[in-house]
Amino acid sequence: MLLLAGLACTKDVDAEGASWLLDLRDAGQPLALGGTFDPSDPTETYFAAQHVVPDLYYGNSPPSEIPLLLWDHVLGEDISDPGICPYVTADGPELIYTAGCRSAEGYDWAGEVRELEWEEEGQEWKHWQFDLVVETELEDKSFERIALEGAIFYASANEDIGLVSHTQTNVRVEAEGYWANKAVNGDNLEAAWSQLSMTGMWETQDVDKRTYVHAGVVDLGDFGGFSFETEGLVDQGASCVGEPKGKLELRGAEDATLRFEGQERCDGCAEHTAGGDTTLACASREYLL
Q: H-helix or E-strand containing 146?
């Protein structure tokens, strides 16, 4: 059983039964609290899992892909003035994006973002530190407000130790109007990303077989918070894209499990057990596009 112990500090980890390839870094006090998500609805539980399980919707690293999707979005030329608002400087290998400005497109920027790349003992690392708010009152707008807070540590592939990717995330995302202005079926995403916090560790390993190992805590906006862990979900490769094989445990207002069957069924569903009842939980376009 993989456990992030205590989460009073994200450097602490109980690795009993685990096989982390890299150690946790100090990413600050946890931003996600968990404990309130109701996992009784199988569709909502699958939706929650799509935010944390690689290959269900995102790639190897949902916890970095989600905040970096928003970071890339606000850096677009229809929202920012590249190099000016935010103003970009370099401090050695570190890039610093300084806000406190209003772009020509009518978006108000506050705070800063820092990006750093380095190599340590043969391992390549990236680090993002967010303290950013971008908002607007424009009628014709991409969103009303996007806020990013916290840190991401990302280690890229290292064949010597069987690592495909390693992500440690402790971030809070507030995206108001992003999905409402973007997607036809964006109501549930809008509610989830209104205040999305993710604290935990994700590794994609390729030692004997490609495996997703992850544990942490998520607050999924209006849906509530939960902790999650897995002893490893096995990537099914080309035989079943978008559904690994293995069991994910969730703990919110009550405990639940999702058992993915991979290539045995490859149907975009999982066996959902909560409150003593077992049924199927499946992907739904009403929840994630």
A: strand 145-155
Q: Residue 85: helix, strand or coil by DSSP?
A: strand
Token pair listed for 122 = 């043969």
Q: Which two tokens stand for residue 86?
A: 């935010």
Q: Centre a 10 Å sphere on the Cβ of residue 27 and count the other Cβ atoms it contains.
A: 23
Residue 73 · residue 79 · CB < 8 Å = yes
pLDDT tens digits for range 197-210: 999 999 999 988 99
Phi, psi of 146 (to 5 degrees): -130, 125
In this predicted model, what pLDDT tens digit does every residue of 213-231 receive, in sequence order? 999 999 999 999 999 999 8
Per the document, the length of the chain is 289
pLDDT digits (tens, 9 = 90+) for 64-87: 999 999 999 999 999 999 999 999
Give the rounded distance of the alpha carbon of 205 from its chain centre.
Answer: 18
Question: What is the pTM (predicted TM-score) of this model?
Answer: 0.91
DSSP assignment of 110-132: EEEEEEEEEEETTEEEEEEEEEE
In the chain, DSSP finds a helix count (H) and a strand count (E) of 3, 15
User: Among 40, 1, 23, which Cα is nearest to 226's?
Assistant: 40
3-state secondary structure of 24: coil
